[in-house]
Amino acid sequence: MAVHIHGGSYARGSGNDPLFPHLSFARAGLVTVTFNYRLGLFGFMTLPQFLKEDPHAPANFGFLDQRMALLWIQENIGLFGGDSREVTVFGESAGAGSILHQLTYKLGTQPSLFHRAFAISPAALSGPEYEMRSNWEGYRHAAESFGCDPEAEDAPDCLRQIDHSKLEYSKNRLMVFPYVTSTPATYQRSGWPVSDHVNFPDVGTALVNGDYNKDVEIVVGNDLDEGRIFTPLMAPIISPSEALLKRQFEIVYGIENGDKLWEVYRPKMSEGGGGEDIRSKTSGDSFGTIAGDTILNCPSWQHTRSLAMNSLHPVKRYASEYIYNHAVLRSFGAFHTSSACLFYNNPSAGAPFPAGFTADEAALAEALFKKVVAFVKGHGLGDDWKPFTVEDGAALLIAKNASTGNISTSITHHWKNDDCSIWAELYPPHGLWAKPCLDDIWADEELVPATLNGAMWWVFLHLKLAAIIAIIILLAITASIIFCCCKCCKCCKCCKSKAPGSNKVKTD
């Protein structure tokens, strides 16, 4: 049976998320379950008062909700034809990160509530910035902004009296993305998981130390351009100068380490020659690569290494460099969670997602979906998909065939190994997350207008409303065009029949 944990930055989304093709899984003969969990402030706010109020559950209420749902499945799924001994969990982004956090619940001392896992672009938060005590200041700020005394014993009760609609869009992003100084104040409050060390430890440390449920078969994967869709939301400028990017590294990591990192991520368009695909052609490309590696690719690389060293089952990894054959989507590259479209055989599974598959995309998606279904049924992923090991680093690579131009799969070795090894040296034992740069690094940069950045954030926070507005505008434009055509009686036959004089009967 298949269980889906939805993503959405731990702040958005629902169990009805179209990213996961529930109907397709059910039609494949799988009992399929989804659920909701508390998000944003409701799911992940923490204060010192919460620790006093309930020492057994001081934080990460959204993760505890997930665990309750998984427990319910264990106790009741047999009534729906499911097998509680054969549970496979799926997740993308925050949903995949949730899987890793659930693996490390109570340092793996409790029985696992699932037996296989498929984690697509996991966003598992780890490192000193995500310690519970490190986040109290931000949550105190959130409480104060709502008129509650953050130092008072009754601060939680005060917050519980706040109308839920006011809390809904107050989500913490202050320490989320590296090098952020420009996110709107309403998005810099509360709503990320923390390492509470009561139920959920630091996930990176727990995996490195083998303190997790090891008897779980797991697949972990990433997309090459994980960070590209986030850069418009991370900074007041999409394509910063090379000087600014280099200065960022030097400010945060010191000149020696900064220069070493810049050598990896600097634009290399001038060295392309020979027609090879050089991804970092501009400083904007470099910015997206830095964001993707520090937020997702390299943390996932480290997590996979830890799992491979400690798990009782072979760990499988995949890497996608495939760019969909769609005019608009090409600019996003191999974007965050785009591989989910192929593994789920669902063109709507990525965000953004392709309008549809080409013939070769559809053929590969069907083949990969069959592998996924076989994995859920306990039949594995096939001998052609080699296990990942620290020494070998094998991964299933999804990319365009260099000779034919068609999409294909092959086995690659040490994907992102060189780049991520540098980050691992800076953050032992995690190899996780670049430090946020709190200096005003944008001071000397020519910025895009604030209205544009604010508009992008508004759309991100109000996707449904933005979609409705876009549809209304499109309908209005279409209606205007039809009206003009009919008024001119030149473009539409049905309009001509209603034109003045069209009902007159011609007589001799």
H and E order: EHEHHHEHEHHHHEHHHEHHEEHHHH
What gyration radius follows from the Cα positions, in whole Å? 25 Å
How large is the count of helical segments?
18
Distance between the termini: 79 Å
Could you give me the name of the CATH homologous superfamily of the largest domain? Alpha/Beta hydrolase fold, catalytic domain
SSE blueprint and pairings:
Elements: E1 2-5, H1 22-27, E2 32-34, H2 40-44, H3 48-53, H4 61-76, E3 88-92, H5 94-103, E4 116-120, H6 132-145, H7 155-160, H8 164-168, H9 203-209, E5 217-223, H10 231-234, H11 242-265, H12 283-310, E6 316-320, H13 339-343, H14 359-376, E7 394-400, E8 407-413, H15 417-426, H16 450-461, H17 463-488, H18 493-496
Parallel strand pairs: 1-2, 1-3, 3-4, 4-5, 5-6, 6-7
Antiparallel strand pairs: 7-8
